Structure formats: structure tokens, C-alpha cells
Amino acid sequence: MPRKIINKFSVSYMQILDENGKVDKKLEPDIPEKELLHLYRSMTAAREFDNRMLKLQRQGRIGTFGPSVGQEAAHCTPVLLMDKDDWFVGAFRESGGRFMRGETMEQTLHFYNGYEEGNKKPDSNTLPISIVVGSQMLHAVGIGYTLNYKGIKDRAVVTFFGDGATSEGDFSEAMNFASVWNTPVVFICQNNHWAISLPRHKQTKSKTIAQKAIAYDIPGIQVDGNDILAMYVAVKEAMDRAKSGGGPTLIEAVTYRLIMHTTADDPTKYRTKEEVAPWLEKDPLIRTKLYLINKGIWDEKKDKAMMDSIFKEIDETVVSFESTVPFRQDKVFDHVFGDPHYTFKEQHQEFLTELEKEKNDGEA
Known about the structure:
Blueprint: E1 12-14, H1 33-58, H2 72-80, E2 87-89, H3 95-100, H4 105-111, H5 135-149, E3 157-162, H6 169-180, E4 185-191, E5 194-195, E6 198-199, E7 220-224, H7 228-243, E8 249-254, H8 273-280, H9 284-294, H10 300-322, H11 342-363
Parallel strand pairs: 1-7, 2-3, 3-4, 4-8, 7-8
Antiparallel strand pairs: 5-6
């Protein structure tokens, strides 16, 4: 018997707005002006807040965090298409999207200073930051399964993760069950080319991340993740599919992490300036600003006013955060166990004793 070709597969790539501001008019979506301006401000606010947090971290005023510099379009644009009742299931590099969902900058500062108040969520279906790589994808599928089980229609779950997460078993399990159960989940991989210091080509031989959707018989597409228009079109198609009962979609948003993985990382140890340079020219903020100017709805005067407003908001946020009544330093012990073990109580007391000793030494 001769061999048969069961099926031929292909992966599509989409770009609508290139780094030079050129637009493919045939594919350009009709996004309301108000939403475009909201998106641009949200992306810019996320960038500037990252810049301020980096300074605060270097000064010892907050803990370690993961900046999203360079990836703003990949996670802010999808939120533009989400309703309040849709589910946002993120990792730790989607601050702009979280702000658009109602979280505040001050909550973010609380979170990265180790205060549980940072996990207080707005009145929306937004899950807390997930530090464990890839685990949130399973949570997203579980939520999607529940929506189907309860017969809840017109809802979608959007989950974000990096290219490194696709090497985790959680990714394969999530994709498999999302497909089998036909859950309304939109998987958005922010492919920034690096899993901390491990380059993409060393973690998978797949030419694209998008092609991994083929194995699970779900739609997959590779998109210019720094292009708000391409991201808008791809996510809208996926959201419409999910909400109409068409099941999950995998979107590979090709982007780049312009600075460090987290503030505990030094990217100059594993990548060159020559590699980074071309991506600086593909910056989503520069590209979006040029697009708005070319449409005649933006100019430098408006841009300066927006920047002044963002800087003022950030300044006020930092002042408010640092003038908050000090938190109990032993609060981290409160919710570790439902029924604390005796050794845990001993550790708690030892911690309180050390705090008292430091206080007395300081007064002396």
C-alpha cells in the first residue's frame, strides 16, 4: 500500500502596521478613535511605570519585578476587545493590560513589595499574577470548562504566557484539554525570544510557536506582536470564535523584551547590543504613535500633555504608596497554613523576637 498524505498544514503570519508606519489598508480594522487613544495611553503608562519601578527597585524601595518594556502591544491590545465578564488569566508581564482591567499602579507597588494587598483585584474577572511559569494556562482551561459546564455563553478566557512556557508540560496539557473540551480560551504567547537567558532556538526546534496548535487541531496564527492592528484583528477573530462555541485559538505574538527578564537579571550576559538594536526600531509605542499621527488624531502637543498626565499620575501613586501606614512586618505568616503547625508558630515567634531585637538595637 502506498503512503497517503492525510493532511497538509500551514501557518499564517499577519502584519498590518509595519515599523515604518506603512498600513495594509485591506486588512486595517476599524477601531474607534476613543479606543485607539485609550490603548496608546495605556501602553505608554505601562512603559513609564516600568521605568519608574526600575528606579524604585534599584533604590531598594520595592522588590524584584518583571518589566514589560517592548511587549505592551501584545498584552494591551487584547484587553481592548475584552468585556468585563471575560476572564483575564495572566503571568507577570502584562501590567498595562491589568491597568486597563481596573487594577491600580498602587496595587502593583504593594504586590512587588510583598504585601498581600497587592493581590486585591478590581470588580472584574481578573486572576492574580502567576509567577509559576505556565501554570496559569491550566487555570484558564479550567475556567473555560466551567463556562461550558454551566452553559454560560458569550464569554471568553484570555491567557498570556511567554515562549519559555510552551516548553512546560502545563502548556501541552492545557492545549490538549482546551481542544478536547472545546473551551472558549484564547492562548496568547508573547514570544519575546528569550526564556530568561535561554534563547528560543534552544528550547524548541519548531520554526514557529503557532504551529504547535496543529497537533491539537485548533486554529493557530503567528502575528507581529508589536503591531496593534494585527493583534486587534487576530484577537477579535479568536474572541468571536470562542464566544460563538468555536473553541480555543493559539496566537503567537512575536515581540521582544527590550530590557531585563526581571530586575534580578543582567541581559548583557547572554545577548548582544547588535541583537537588540533592530527591535528598538520596532518599538510598539513608536509605531503606534506614528500611526495615530498619520491618521490625523494625534500630534506632539497632545503627546506632551499625555506624558505630563502620566508622570503626574505615577508621582502621586508613589507618594501615596510610601505614605501608607506601615504594614505589619509579620503579616506574611497569616495565611500560610489554615491550621498552623507548632514549628511554624515557633518560627513566627522567632521572627517577632528578631524584630524586637532590631528595634531595641536601633534605639540604643
